[in-house]
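> tool_call: predict_assembly(chains=two)
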Amino acid sequence: MAKDRKNRKKVTVIDNPNEQEILKTAEYSMMQAIWSRFRRHKLAVVGLVIFLFMLVFSLAAPLFEVVTGYPKNYTSLHIKSLPGSIPGIAVSITDPDWNNTEVYENGKEFWFTNIDEENGTALINMTTFENEDYKRKYRFTLKSLGDVDALDSVIETKRDDTGAVVRDEDGKPIREKVGLKEYFIGRAQNKRHIATGQILTYMPPKDGIDTTIDPSTGNGREEYVGPAPMHILGTDGGGHDVLPRLAYGGRISLMIAFSVTFITGLVGIFFGALAGFFGGFADALLLRVIELMGTIPLLPIYMVLVKVIPGGQTPFALILIFSVFGWAGHARMVRGTFFRERSQEYCESAKAIGAGNMRIMFKHLLPNAIAPVITSMSLGVGSIILSESSLSFLGLGADPLTTPTWGALIFEANQYFLNMPWPGIFAGLLIFMTVVSFFFMGDGLRDALDPRQKI
Amino acid sequence: MGSFLIRRGITFLIMLILITGLVYFVLRLPGDPFTQLEVLQPHLKDEINRMREWSGFNDPWYVGYFKWMKKVVFDWDWGKSINDKQPVWTKISSKMPMTIKIQAGVLIIGILCAVPLGIFSARRQYSTADYILTFFSYIGVSIPRFWFGLLLLLFFGVMLKILPIGWNLWENHDSLPWIMRVWDQVRNLILPVSMGVIGTIANLSRYMRTSMLEEIRRDFVRTARSKGLSENTVIYKHTLRNALIPIVTIMAFIIPALISGSVITEQIFNIDGMGKMMFTAVTSSDIPVMMGNLTLLAALTLMSLVLQDVMYALVDPRITYS
């Protein structure tokens, strides 16, 4: 095809200026024609502009880090209690008797080491951090955290020195009230409990860990600052500037969406081509699978898979999961075109000349199918961004500590959304604009690539 | 039709068994909920084993699946939740009405708004009104629904204070006259339903427009016009009936999607329905509850596929199954 174009250019050197004028339209290359039709679609151009803005915005993320002085990740953490929950870190604690379970969703696992009973301090050992920086141990002081009085009401299962449950005559475990220090230290010493809690606030380090925290209140230096000259988009619950995190979130969301679209596009073309070309049993089977995948409610499936697959809450695993379920729509498009076109004359003649199946499929038929696939891929990018952010919003997307995503920012903001909504509003606006830009561009691409299809 | 239904019924059962088997296998992949506990706290081995036996996780997955299915089929026993030891079926059936209430509202209002909008835009194709509607339908499709829900909460619940934040019935709800009770429910349903309905309207009205445009170009429409029928008769009597056929089939996709969307709706508005139960089950690895929920969803999905074929035959006399 490239050869053809070169030849054509040579031929179009014509002396007569009138004739040149006439031939000018024919001289457009395919890309030029598509681009000119695309440009005529106003919404598509708006979409392209928004998309380019998002691209620049997320590529500029390191710049925002430097300007605001806040890194994308929370590099040290300070743990604060939710109102009404147990102070300290334990937002919820599951004990192995299953008597005293209050699960706070989206937990992180940790346990205590190096308990210093004298000073009431202990080290928390975090297990879920991928990043080496987070693997160091965090010192926290039980006394200084949260509402200590609230702990009067904590009821523990009574245990003897060996850690066995003390039971009454009926065989029921005896439960008793404990104080703050005993509560944590008891748990820590015996390693009896898996404490799953959510780490609620994180502070950037300034000369060591504790200086950013006011030891008397346990509160951070800057919390919930609204949009202001210092912090253009405000700060989030951890007193952390929203801007760099938004920019990095864009990187992750776009990266996931593009990878998934690329993979599902290839897989969809492959399966769709096979089914549409050969028909028969393979076609019937593929149609069934496509039908099922189109109907199946995906969000619960994603939720379960993210939880079940080891390391499910990483961008890589998310790409994998979305790809497995995302190719059906593209395959249907390709299958339809192949099915329609395979009995056309040019196909028959290619066969008569002796072209192999592979050649007919990918040399003759595929160019016909590529336009609808590109359109559906463009629309697919938008819907994958939506799925990904919905998952993150439920706290089941990529781990917000190491990879800030837009959905995760809304998830964090959701905890205090009614009072401090701005991080969530900005993140949602970015998701919305990006998705809309892909839908607009998809519409424009459909018109540009295949003018017959205009509806 | 009869033999078709029987054939589809058998496929339905086989598919259901395959899917639930796959789901059970996947859920058991990371071991059982107690594996982690055992690693961290080896001295509690006896208690953990007791728990494991109680919940039936000491078998390999295929045996576990077989036992689970046997119990469901013969005793209608869906197992017990690991978190609160309640029977799964009791949990599901107590939470289903709430979810159905919200999602049925979304579906009905969605159809009632989308069909007229679709007809309107198709009749005035490429007019300004059509472009505006198209633009809004793009917005409706691409707005993240959870974010839209939060904005609704913020605006109507917090700033204007005219609608409740979350599911919040009046304290004396039960002693009110029935009309006030209904109003109380409606008041609480407005925000969750409008959060769900925007995407449904946007999607459905696009489909409606396309299918209307396809029909309006047919020969029989031209015939109807040329024999002097009024435009309303042509549109509502001749075209609309045919244009609704694809919409009926799209229901098969919309209904399962609505149920899965309830996870987000119920999370935002703190509504105690199936979505929230599913979410809690997922985050706390409550395998029996997850299994029950996913089985229901699979059954619903497969059923709506069968229903799609049946509806096709019912609304379109040209299609028959043998």
